[in-house]
Design a protein that fits this description.
With 381 residues, the protein is α/β, with parallel strands linked by helices. The protein is 40% helix and 14% strand. Bound molecules: pyridoxal-5'-phosphate (PLP).
Length: 381
């Protein structure tokens, strides 16, 4: 059996898989399902510290990003696209697709967004309807401090859209306190359910903007407004994937019942990064590390594909390369959700040590030993 240690999709616990095999009802006609859906949305809101509306959409994580842009953007709208990573920059495509005019605020891909630089920029340029920002930009693993960025945007009356698909749950996210208008999440990252679902949290202000548009939203499937009043009207825009939502609920409860979930992410993230550096390898980032994924530079003279192939074929562990501007330059270990445990990360680092040695890389000791030693110095979780 292959062990999945990629930064999403992640491993799926047995109780989540079993929940997906339960007998189902007709989710359009059975009124009880509307309560089940609503309770599941409330659970997401509780875990993400928001009283905003939450909607589960039937589509992989990308759907949430597209739905946010489709629902907010009107022709000619100016949108600030905060770009310090591949997903960050990618938002510009959705804005353009729906007739908006993206303006990129580009910063180094090797560190998190500097708040005071962004503040100075906003002082002079703040004529935007909304801004997009990625919480954890997974290809580089950079973590942006949305708890500082979004209140700053709010101060200038700019709505915020945050992609936290690979940040949420593993990293703290206080949506209401941080004044975030729309947050996008997905099932297959730290939540550790299979891919297939996205969800969005939507503030009152964002909902009003959608309702008071001059032009109708140019999409049906990506139209967030279609979900408004689903509960009162007992009507969903399309038939809900009931088995996926059973699985999602089980995965949410796994997190709710695991009181050290987020602390464990921090400890495992810290220890993994220390292990990488102590063994003489280099992290891609200079600062702004997410505890959900570690991104390691490919040592000179070897290539990423060989590392991934040996890891998979010889040691039966799947880690990931990266894409776009990071293609071939880095390898990534996803230690989020179910993957975030000492045994699996230790086994992965042991296999990575052997793989790199097979390829002729000189390391300072075994990554696994460094990892376990670092764990001894960190709080127990
Ligand atoms: C995984 C992910 C998504 C969802 O899209 P994919 O199709 O899995 O790429 C969106 N945003 C981020 C930051 C992600 O990590």
């Amino acid at each position: 059996m292959l062990k999945i240690m990629t930064p999403g999709p992640t491993q799926v616990r047995e109780n989540v898989r079993l929940a997906r095999s339960l007998e189902t009802t007709n989710p359009d006609l059975d009124l009880e399902f509307y309560d089940y859906y609503k309770d599941t949305c409330l659970l997401i809101g509780e875990l993400l510290h928001t009283k905003n509306e939450v909607y589960i959409l039937d589509g992989e994580g990308i759907l949430g990003l597209e739905a946010a842009c489709a629902s907010l953007t009107e022709p000619g709208d100016k949108v600030l696209v905060i770009d310090n990573g591949v997903y960050g920059k990618g938002f510009a495509d959705f804005v353009t697709l729906y007739g908006g005019e993206p303006e990129l605020y580009s910063a180094e891909y090797t560190e998190d967004i500097n708040i005071s630089n962004l503040g100075s920029f906003l002082e002079k340029h703040h004529d935007f309807k909304y801004a997009t920002i990625v919480h954890c930009d997974t290809p580089s693993g950079v973590l942006n401090d949305v708890s500082k960025i979004c209140p700053l945007l709010h101060k200038y009356g700019i709505l915020s859209v945050v992609d936290s698909v690979s940040g949420m749950f593993g990293e703290p996210l206080y949506i209401d306190e941080s004044k975030i208008d729309i947050v996008c999440g997905g099932s297959q990252k730290a939540l550790s359910a299979p891919p297939g679902l996205s969800f969005v949290t939507v503030s009152e202000a964002a909902m009003q903007i959608m309702e008071n548009r001059k032009h109708p939203i140019s999409s049906f499937y990506a139209n967030i407004l279609n979900f408004k009043n689903y509960y009162e009207n007992k009507w969903f825009p399309y038939t809900m994937p009931i088995s996926d939502i059973y699985g999602l609920r089980a995965a949410l409860l796994n997190i709710k019942n695991d009181t050290s979930f987020q602390d464990r992410h921090k400890v495992i993230g810290d220890a993994t990064r220390k292990a990488v550096q102590n063994a003489g390898l280099e992290l891609y980032l200079k600062k702004g590390y997410s505890n959900t994924v570690s991104v390691i530079k490919v040592p000179e003279g070897i290539n990423a594909k060989d590392i991934l192939d040996i890891m998979k074929n010889q040691y039966h562990i799947m880690i990931a390369g990266s894409f776009d501007v990071m293609l071939g330059k880095v390898i990534r270990i996803g230690h989020m959700g179910e993957n975030s445990n000492t045994e699996d990360v230790a086994e992965t680092l042991d296999a990575l040590t052997k793989t790199l040695m097979d390829l002729g890389v000189k390391l300072k000791g075994n990554l696994k030993e460094h990892f376990l030693n670092s764990l001894k110095e960190l709080p127990k979780v």
